[in-house]
Amino acid sequence: MTLHERLLRLFLDSQKVAALLGDLDEEAARLGASHGWIRRQALRYALSAAWLAATRMDEDFAQDVRHGFRLVRRLPGLALAACTSLAIGIGGTTAAFTMIDAALLRPWPYPDADRLMVVSTNLGRYFSPPAFRRLASQHDGLDHLTAAEGHEFLMKFGGQAVLVNGHRVSAEVVPLLGLNGPLHPEAGRTFLTSEFTPESEPVVAISHRLWRTRYASSQSIIGQTITADGAPLRVVGVLSRNFDFFPDSDLLVPLTFSEPGTYSEYARTLEVYGSLRPGLTPDLAALMLSGKTRYFFPTQVASVESVRDRLFRGFRPTVKILSVVSLIILLVGCLNFATLLTVRSADRQQELAVRIAMGAGRHRIVRQLVTEALVLSVVGGAAGVLLAYIGRGLLAGNATEGMLELSRNPEWRVIVFATVLAVSTGVMFSIGPARRATARVDLESALRDTVPSPLSGISPFGFRGNWLVGSIQVAFTMVLLVGAGLLVKSLLRIQSFDPGYDSSHAVTLRFDLPRIRYRTDADVASFVDLLTDRIRAVPGVHDAGAASSLPFFLGALRMRHVLLEGPIHVSGPPEAMPFGWRVPPPPPPPPGMTDMPPLDFFFALSCEVDPAFFRTMRIPLIKGRDFTPFDTAASPPVVIINQAMAARYWPDADPVGRRMRLGPLYPWKTIVGVVGNIRRFARDDEIRSEYYEPFAQAGDQRRLLARLGTDLASRGLVEAPSSPAMIVVRSRLNARTVANAVAPLVRTIDPSLPIGQVSTLRQALDNAIADRRFILSHVVGFAVLALLLAAVGVYAVTSHVVRRRGHELGIRAALGARGTHLVWLAMQEGVVVAVVGVFVGGLLSIALTPQLRGFLYEVNPWDWRTLSLVAFLLIPAVICASYFPARRAARVDPLTALKSV
Amino acid sequence: MAVKPSRRPSTTLGEFEFVVLLAVLGLKSEAYPLSIRDAIEAKTNRVVSRAAVFITLERLEDKGYLSSRYGDPTPVRGGRAKRFFSPTRTGLAAARQSLHTVTAMTRGLEAILKKS
């Protein structure tokens, strides 16, 4: 075959090509033209034929699309089922993609965002000001090294004291985050270099949010002076609305390194960011920085990590699970779609046969079936995107705080993703059924309107493959159901666990008592005593207590070195620090005692409480006595330890009466009681040694230094600018009512003190499992949808089998087969699907559920009870889906069936 | 089950489509691309490309105005058959409609049209 003939045959059938070439031969003979002329003319014909084919395709496509919409109108039930199947699959996947997009793909507005790094060390992520200055003195590895320190500023709006989150930042923040570039201020300007010196006038840049909510977006705020923490700050600018590098931060204030504690190596409050130099890797930069970090703490090793990576690391497990779950639902949805299309094309055998008999090309019919499916898939995809965007609200609402910032507007990447997904699933999952439908057309029987082979053309993937497709659906549904079952079981366990205190009907209020006004522990203790006394008098309040830290709120919980009076017998392995904290270096030896032999320090969490704390929290006193109002600064120092500490250090002895202290020069504190353990950080966290001391007796360090005649700053030590006091109010009133009742009481004691954070113990507990709840709601939701889809799929296939085997069943009925036998014949397929699907699903679950381990609590990922329960529920559900259509088989009229043969 | 025509017939004919349809009518049973082109060139005194005739014949068949059949192979054509075209009933109706339109529109314009 010549080249031009081949070309022509790409677009025309062989007879037409032969006729055309015959015309050319004839004309060439008439004109005496050469073979070259024939070739040229044939090529021209080929171009024309290509153009014609393109225009035909266009028309065919439009016609097929119209036909697709007619199908929707004619068979709304089938179209609805197919579209819904895809909508659920595409919606779920799009929702998961939205999260991944927000976390990974959406570009950050900062210059060189991929090179934006955060520096940390093996001792933690915070640096002291001297350590930061050492890092910044030589720009090794990172450019624009910037320190940032979070701080709550006390401000007043309309006479009401309010705590506003803010950050103190060093000068390089401006080029690092592009505050004069892509993120230029909405109004005013950013900081000048001169404003980062201690002599300059204090200035502030406010967030767009604060500007909008507190200053009505007024331009006149620029240049005005606002008061924060009692000090005047001149507003120089309003930050860009896209600036969210420090989430929830509303004030940016220059860090001048003249703040208290600037010279302290122990005041580790600064986070350090920088831009990775081109050509360097984070590891190399970390190696270069480690030379500086070892200066004060020889064991301190720096590490450098991309800010984006660190942000994503936190919710990587969530995204992973969501991705797998959404892919499963997509697969189940697509298989359903394919099954429904197959059923539909099998029902159209006669129509297809007539068209083929009339000369329609097989490719043309496949193209039409695929286009029809495409119409359904695009409609389903659009509905899916809609579902995903409706679901986004739930997704974002359920997400743990600070988990993800989802964009309010549809992202073009998400739309493109969903479109590609819809079109590709539409084509991929319809091309098989369409090819098979046209391949299996039985012209003779279709044209005679008789019965073809009962199972012909029913499976998208092969003869009798329909049970395979059904089994895959059931198997994946089983995986989702097992996952959901494990998570539900886990959540039930978590919710029924005993945190060690009574979390019901307990409102918590946080106060930050500024050191300027609350200089001594006695000041703090008297504020707490006064306030709790007055709160107890409020009608509806049963009791009130106070502590420097509450479970799940942190507050001022400290990890302390303690020296225990011997003899002690430490039992058990070393305790792990919470949140992966590293063991801090031991405190520096006191002045004049540098040659002291090394001491065997232990670590314990420490918390300051008032005498009513244990009673209000309902933490049981196991041994000894509770604190009393007589445990004051003037009385002998006392502590109460938890059971874990007692068991660890005095496993065989009574700890009551033993003594402990913070260091050789500190006073001994007598253990007067042992209280029950409480969970502080997470429901499934281990319980650590912990001791409690009265508010009035805390602050050993300050008292020691006062005794030694020196002050904190000169010893390189620093105190937090405020002491947190968390008040627990035991009451059946809701949190807002309690806060409203407490506010005037606080004003009578200290008019300028704001209530920081109002919550409940129950809410804090719930927040601690928000990520589990988030995953749970999604997995359960998707599992239910998958079950529904699988049931619809099995129902559709069984209905089809019943319809196609109607004649056979009728004959059997005529020959005397019983109704139950006919039903059993029709639903055999469903039973096979259920049993095989559950078996394969069980194996898949065993392979996949260990991925959920991080979200489970006291539940084995291979929990056989959950597996059995799901199997026990799933098999009947699938069999039911095939039973209802099969029941119709029993009603087949034998007479009608016999007539039609 | 009734099968719908694959293409919806257009009620109007383009100018060249009309010319080709008239040529097919005129050639009766001898209408194949080469003879159709020759007839048009002879009667209209204009050069017509082979591709234009080929595309128009295909489109008229798509619209249901023409049908085609294959004749016997002949040696001068390298043993290949001719593809003969004949008008369908709708094709005839469309030709009549087009002629009627032209006649109706030219009525009263004879003097002007003759002059030009």
The low-confidence parts of chain B are 1-10
The average pLDDT of chain A is 78
What is the count of β-strands of chain A? 21
Rg value of chain B? 16 Å
Shape summary of chain B: globular
Provide structural commentary.
The complex is a heterodimer of chains A (901) and B (116). Chain A has 901 residues and is an alpha+beta fold. Helix content of chain A is 50%, strand content 15%. In chain A, the strands form three sheets. In chain A, strands 1, 2, 3, 4, 5, 6, 7, 8, 9 and 10 form a ten-stranded mixed beta sheet that branches. Chain A has a six-stranded mixed barrel with strand order 13-14-19-16-18-17. A four-stranded antiparallel beta sheet of chain A has the order 12-20-11-21. In chain A, 42% of the residues are buried. The model of chain B is unreliable at 1-10 (pLDDT under 50). The interface between A and B is medium-sized, with 29 and 24 residues.
Keywords:
heterodimer; A: 901 residues; alpha+beta; 4 domains; six-stranded mixed β-barrel; 25 helices; 21 strands; 50% helix; B: 116 residues; mainly alpha; two-stranded antiparallel sheet; 2 strands; disordered N terminus
Summarize the structure.
The complex is a heterodimer of chains A (901) and B (116). In chain A, a hairpin with a 2-residue loop joins β6 (225-228) and β7. Chain A contains 25 helices and 21 strands.
Helices and strands in order:
The complex is a heterodimer of chains A (901) and B (116).
Chain A: H1 3-11, H2 14-31, H3 35-74, H4 76-105, E1 116-121, H5 129-137, E2 142-157, E3 160-169, H6 173-176, E4 187-188, E5 203-206, H7 208-215, E6 225-228, E7 231-238, E8 251-254, E9 271-276, H8 282-293, E10 302-306, H9 307-347, H10 349-357, H11 362-398, H12 412-439, H13 443-447, H14 466-495, E11 506-514, H15 521-536, E12 541-547, E13 558-564, E14 602-609, H16 613-617, E15 621-624, E16 638-642, H17 643-649, E17 659-661, E18 669-675, E19 690-694, H18 700-708, E20 722-731, H19 735-749, E21 758-760, H20 761-767, H21 770-804, H22 806-814, H23 819-848, H24 864-889, H25 894-900
Parallel strand pairs in A: 3-8, 5-7, 14-19, 16-18
Antiparallel strand pairs in A: 1-9, 1-10, 2-3, 2-9, 4-7, 5-8, 6-7, 11-20, 11-21, 12-20, 13-14, 13-17, 15-18, 16-19, 17-18
Helix pairs in contact in A: 1-3, 2-3, 3-4, 3-11, 4-9, 4-11, 4-12, 4-21, 9-12, 9-14, 9-21, 11-12, 14-21, 14-23, 14-24, 15-19, 21-22, 21-23, 21-24, 22-25, 23-24
Chain B: H1 15-27, H2 33-44, H3 50-62, E1 66-70, E2 83-87, H4 89-106, H5 110-115
Antiparallel strand pairs in B: 1-2
